[in-house]
Design brief:
22% of the residues lie in helices and 18% in strands. The protein is of the alpha+beta class and 211 residues long.
C-alpha cells in the first residue's frame, strides 16, 4: 500500500528474498505465459455473466476487506470475480536502469482505487476487494440508458475516487466500447484513453445523468 512506511525507512527489512527487479521480470514472464482471453474476460465483467465459469468458492475475510473504508452493504457477499482486477502498486525501491527511457510517471490524486464498469445502461464502482460500493448513471459509453444502445458497448476503467470532490479520476483503461486493451502497450493505452475521453462530450462535467 502507498500509505505504508517506505521500506528504506522500516526498522527491519526482509533479507534473502528475491529483489524487486527479479520479481518484476518474473511477473512479466508470467504475463506472457498466461494470456487471458481478454475479450471474454471483459465481457463477463461488463455483463456480470459468469455462466460456465467454475465457482471460485467463498471469499474469506482478509486484511484487504478490512482496509476498505467505503460504505458497503453488509448483506452482500464479496464477489471474488470482481476482486484483484486492478494493478497493484508498490514502492520503487530498486531504481531500474532504463527508468528514463522505458518508464512512465503518473501523478495520482488522493483517494481510493476503484474498478469502474459502465455497461447495460448503468455504471458500477467496485473496490479493490470486489465490493460494489456504488451504482449511478454516467456519460461513459454504456453508462446510462440513453447511450447504451447495444450490449457490446461497455467500458472498464481503473480509477481513483476522491470523496471530498466526489470525483472519479481515470488512471488507466482496460476496455473501451467493448474493445479490451489489457495487453496493449502503456503509451498506447494512455493515448487511446486521452483521445476517446475527448470525444465524450460532458464527461468531465456534473449533470443529472453524469453525477
Amino acid at each position: 500500500s502507498p500509505a505504508a512506511p517506505h521500506p528504506r525507512l522500516a526498522a527491519y527489512k526482509a533479507r534473502g528474498g528475491p529483489g524487486q527487479a527479479e520479481r518484476r521480470q518474473r511477473l512479466l514472464r508470467l504475463q506472457r505465459e498466461r494470456r487471458l482471453d481478454y475479450v471474454n474476460h471483459a465481457r463477463r465483467l461488463a455483463e456480470d455473466d459468469w455462466a460456465g465459469v467454475e465457482s471460485e468458492g467463498e471469499e474469506k475475510e482478509g486484511e484487504d476487506a478490512e482496509e476498505e473504508e467505503m460504505d458497503v452493504d453488509p448483506g452482500k457477499k464479496l464477489p471474488k470475480r470482481y476482486a484483484n482486477q486492478l494493478m497493484l502498486s508498490e514502492w520503487l525501491v530498486d531504481v531500474p536502469l532504463d527508468l528514463e527511457q522505458e518508464w512512465v510517471v503518473v501523478v495520482c490524486p488522493v483517494g481510493k482505487r476503484a474498478l469502474v464498469v459502465a455497461s447495460r445502461g448503468t455504471t458500477a464502482a467496485y473496490t479493490k476487494s470486489g465490493f460494489c460500493v456504488n451504482r449511478f448513471p454516467s456519460l461513459l459509453p454504456g453508462g446510462n440508458r440513453h447511450n447504451s444502445t447495444s450490449e457490446k458497448v461497455y467500458c472498464i476503467l481503473d480509477c481513483i475516487y476522491n470523496e471530498a470532490k466526489q470525483t472519479y479520476y481515470i488512471l488507466d483503461v482496460m476496455c473501451w466500447r467493448g474493445h479490451p486493451v489489457y495487453d496493449c502497450q502503456t503509451d498506447f493505452r494512455f493515448f487511446w484513453l486521452f483521445s476517446k475521453i475527448q470525444e465524450e462530450e460532458g464527461l468531465g462535467e456534473k449533470s443529472r445523468i453524469n453525477p
